[in-house]
Amino acid sequence: MSGSLSGLRVLDLSRVLAGPWSAQILGDLGAEVIKVERPGSGDDTRNWGPPYLTGADGSSELSAYFLSANRNKQSLAIDIATDKGQELVRKLVSESDIVLENFKVGGLKRYGLDYDSLKAMNPGLIYCSITGFGQDGPYASRPGYDFLIQAMGGLMSITGQPDGAPGAGPVKVGVAMTDIMTGLYATIGILAALNHRERTGMGQHVETSLLDVQVASLANQAMNFLTSGTVPQRMGNAHPNIVPYEAFPTADGDMVLTVGNDEQFARLCDVLGHPEWAGDERFKTNRARVANRKELVPRIRQATVMRSTDDWVGALEKAGVPCGPVNTIDRVFSDSQVLARGIQRQLNHPVLGAVPTVGNPLRFTLTPVDYRSAPPLLGEHSGQILGTVLGLSPEQISSLVSEGILGKDCS
């Protein structure tokens, strides 16, 4: 392995999405990632389907959900509820740089796998905890899921059609963005702790939560409230601070206009055939357009329905006006720019064959992202990990399988 994080070992005790997303990023960047799973069932998302990707012989399958967040990992199926299982994990911790977990607060303490218990044997350990609500506070003991946090963290209150419009009501984002953002923040925290360890030799406990991340990710909407006292409302596809910045109907569908400054607006007016709008005091500046959006937006809609999406996009791009079609996901993966960037990739799996994956968006000149392995079958690498990292013999591994400490599918 030759990635930026080559030489580091990650023990991934997390499941579902936020933790696995972070661990997948670390794996993409070259770290060795050992995914610890419950024998027999594994990560919950292995069964979150359909759809599933099935092997040619039909004997093995992985859910699309699991496939989205678990490449570049090895799977170790081990029962951490047992004394021997806990001891094996502790031995792996002593040989690791990073532990990533998303158990409930205190959930690993009873197994002796919490940070305070593990740092004594590995002072340089970076231990990252992800929870729903944080390590303290009145909600600390509650479980957290993305949908719940999108609601409690305010995101759904600003997502969806405005009150009084058809289909009005709070709506969640179409993917688990709170989980994904939490995975990104966790990764940033781990990298910062690695830099600190490089300077001092000291590890530390990094923690974040879905609720903390969701509130932090309210970005301009949070500041809109904190600076004005006005509670942001659902606005459909409209933007609270920029006009025009939303979806507009065309003769055969919809397109998005993202006009970020007054010069772009003037060019838009020319293409729409209404150059006079750019000089109208009601629309001349973004501040005026925000104040008078109810007068301007219907006028733009009346103009955009006269031509097809492709016609408008071609003309507006030529004029330097940011715009684009509202693509379905199949069109995303056939888009010429997406194809040129090589975002869709294939990984080979020894049982499932060719496994599709969505590439990491980072690009490096010296240490490129390494797509080493497809998401693993449950326990696929148990024997390999315990033999290579801990030096266990085949007989010792076989005995652990017989005792139920390791999954029967251990290899």
Automatic annotation (TrEMBL):
It comes from the Bacteria. Keywords: Transferase. InterPro entries: CoA-transferase_III_domain, CoA-Trfase_fam_III, CoA-Trfase_III_dom3_sf, CoA-Trfase_III_dom_1_sf. GO terms for molecular function: CoA-transferase activity. Pfam families: CoA_transf_3. This is Crotonobetainyl-CoA:carnitine CoA-transferase CaiB. It comes from Marinobacter subterrani.
